[in-house]
Amino acid sequence: MIDHAIRLFKEYHEKNQNGVVLSSGSVKLLNSLLCSCILAKKYDEVKRVFVNFTKSYTIEPSLDTYNTVIQAFSEGGSSSSCYSVLNEMDKKGVKPNATTFGNLIAGFYKEEKFEDVGKVLKMMEEDYGINAGIDIYNIRIRSLCKLKRSKEAEALLGGCIARGVKPKAVTYRYLIFGFCKEGNLEGAKSLFKSMVNRGCKPDYYCYSTLINFLSKGRDFESAYRICKESMEKKLVPNFPTMKMLVEGLANSGNVEKAKELIGEIKEKFSKNVDLWNEVEAGLPQ
């Protein structure tokens, strides 16, 4: 597919260039091609296409172009190469934005180059005047959770709040998932409670993640309580998660609560009614 996209790109430009600098549409086509390479995880191809095509077809890279190249280096394990991209941007007069640095920070976290993370954050704020907003914090928190360093991510959340940056539901979602993956269900429940107390509304993924892991951890009472809350907001986890909770409640002696949940689901949501009838028929009597 990438070979086909590159061939079409070349054919288009060879047909339309006629020895002149092409319009901004060429930059958009180039950016689309670079994104396609990333989707295919052809990170080396991103570098080749960027270097060769901008020269061969006299295309001036845009901010989106540079951001895509930095994303490719970061995802491909070559984050240090991004410094040269930043240098080129400076020479071309293209100012980086939060997305530029967010991609770079994510890459350095992935490679566990924590000193470089600090270096980039300092560069971002002192050299370019870009303050770390919630999107940058979310990238950092998500990255730490992926590395199973969720306690550090929680501390970072505290720093975020102290700086007056307001967390979003997705911020807590990353943390809750991270704590759950590390088996710290009590920590995940505490985060969920803190989230609600701070006036941040849990989204579908916050609820479903916590209910799923609590059910796997056999904390069916907590899962049931959080599930009831989510259902009041018409945020119902997927069928496998709900089935695990219902059967867990029934098998731990809470048949009535299990049937109550099934009844509410069937009453409010017509989807999967037949499947729920089968589940209910199989519950202990």
UniProtKB/TrEMBL annotation:
<dbReference type="InterPro" id="IPR050667">
    <property type="entry name" value="PPR-containing_protein"/>
</dbReference>
<dbReference type="InterPro" id="IPR002885">
    <property type="entry name" value="PPR_rpt"/>
</dbReference>
<dbReference type="Pfam" id="PF13041">
    <property type="entry name" value="PPR_2"/>
</dbReference>
<feature type="repeat" description="PPR">
    <location>
        <begin position="168"/>
        <end position="202"/>
    </location>
</feature>
<feature type="repeat" description="PPR">
    <location>
        <begin position="203"/>
        <end position="237"/>
    </location>
</feature>
<keyword id="KW-0677">Repeat</keyword>
<protein>
    <recommendedName>
        <fullName>Pentatricopeptide repeat-containing protein</fullName>
    </recommendedName>
</protein>
<comment type="similarity">
    <text>Belongs to the PPR family. P subfamily.</text>
</comment>
<feature type="repeat" description="PPR">
    <location>
        <begin position="133"/>
        <end position="167"/>
    </location>
</feature>
<dbReference type="Pfam" id="PF01535">
    <property type="entry name" value="PPR"/>
</dbReference>
<dbReference type="InterPro" id="IPR011990">
    <property type="entry name" value="TPR-like_helical_dom_sf"/>
</dbReference>
<feature type="repeat" description="PPR">
    <location>
        <begin position="62"/>
        <end position="96"/>
    </location>
</feature>
